């Protein structure tokens, strides 16, 4: 979160961080908010404008937690939705033809991809909890909660959880299909072995 940065200063900061950023996003997510200091006796938000009742840096830090969580949540949302959209055709194919048009190897790889996406999100899901910062600064939790509510963090988290459930259902469906293909393969192997055994017996 950057406060009081000009676009040029922000670009310079991003360039300086390039060498130390781990796994940077392909497409940066940037949100802009306007804020005013000391124009109100209490903190409130209106039309994406933050009206601060003081100029304390700790207040800005408290608000930055909510803004950072919103940005991280947006990344999770896009990641989950992309996986669901890319693989929506599988359930349609299964409903229309009764089978998934993928080889066992492709199914296994896809299951791994879906599982990795779900795991990556779940492992970092705690980033969306109330930050420990407010354990030591409970007086600032009010402004954080107010901004969190404005950004719809909780409803968005619930929607994300439903998307994760959809991914889990996809994984389960693919697992069932993979097991079915493996069973069918074994059945054919057994049939062929029996046929060979009969042929050897008679000839």
Question: Taking all residues together, what is the mean pLDDT?
Answer: 81
The DSSP helix count reads 7
**Overall body shape:** elongated
* Largest sheet: spatial strand order: 1-3-2
The count of domains is 1
Judged by helices, strands and strand pairing, the structural class is: mainly alpha
Q: In percent terms, what proportion of residues is strand?
A: 5-15%
User: Tally of extended strands?
Assistant: 3
> How would you characterize the largest beta sheet?
3 strands, mixed
In sequence order, what are the helices and strands, one letter per element? HEEEHHHHHH
Uncertain spans: none
Radius of gyration: 26 Å
- N→C terminal distance: 81 Å
Helix content class: 55-70%
Task: Note down, in words, how this protein is organized.
With 203 residues, this protein is mainly alpha-helical. The protein has one domain. Helices cover 67% and strands 5% of the residues. The chain has a three-stranded mixed sheet, with helices on one face. A hairpin with a 2-residue loop joins strand 2 (44-46) and strand 3. Helix 2 runs parallel beside helix 6 and helix 4 packs antiparallel against helix 7 (153-202).
Gist?
The protein is mostly helical. It has 7 helices and 3 strands. It has helices spanning 7-17, 57-86, 88-97, 104-123, 133-136, 141-150, 153-202, and strands spanning 34-37, 44-46, 49-52.
